[in-house]
Every structure is written in C-alpha cells, then in structure tokens.
Amino acid sequence: MIDELAFAFGITGPVLLLLIIGRALRATAIVDDHFVSRANALVFNVALPALLFFSIAGSPLGSAFDIRLTLVGLGGTLRFCAVTPRRTTGAAPKVRRPTLERRRTPRKQGSARA
Questions:
Q1: pLDDT, tens digit, for every residue of 39-65?
Q2: Coil, strand, or helix at residue 106?
Q3: I need a labelling partner for 58 at 20 to 30 A (CA). Which of 12, 25, 34, 66 fits?
Q4: In Å, what is the CA distance from 80 to each residue of 71, 72, 90, 92?
C-alpha cells in the first residue's frame, strides 16, 4: 500500500509542485498574463513537439511502430470521414454578427461640445 502511494506521489508530486509554484508566482504578480500567453505558445509550439520527436527518435523502430495500432487509427479516421456530413459548397456559411452602434443621447439645451 505504501509502495503504491509513493509511486503515485512520485508521478504526480512534481506536477503538483509546479502548480503550487505557478500559483504563488501569479499571486505575487511576478508572472503576468502576457508572460503566461507567450510561455504557453512556446511550450505548445516548440517544446512539446521537440519532446515528442526526440522520444520517438530515441526509441527502436519496432516499439514505435505497431501495424495493428496503425490500422485501427486508419480505420477510425476513414469511418469518421464516412459518417461526417459534407458541405455542398466550398465556402463557409456567412455569420451575421451584430454591430455595436453608439447610442446617441439627445443634447441638453445650452450644452455645447468642443
């Protein structure tokens, strides 16, 4: 029981620690919204694809490629494409968005705008 708990905390502990540190940095205003959005873009567009590439490149080809898994993925994709309704036109439907019109209030007598 203790071994399983130690194993689970060994996996989730670093993530929990990073969450606590991030919350503390955000509360003390060391990290602002601009930094969070830029760091998020860096992680998702650069770091995670690089990590995925290096983990796949470092593994043997037999363990990285499974023909059954590939066929199941291909079959699921083809089935999804077969049941998804197709558009008859290539153009996306135009969405009419409401415009924000400035409400004009009647001027009071005697007040002039500069």
A1: 999 999 999 999 999 988 887 777 667
A2: coil
A3: 12
A4: 14, 12, 20, 20
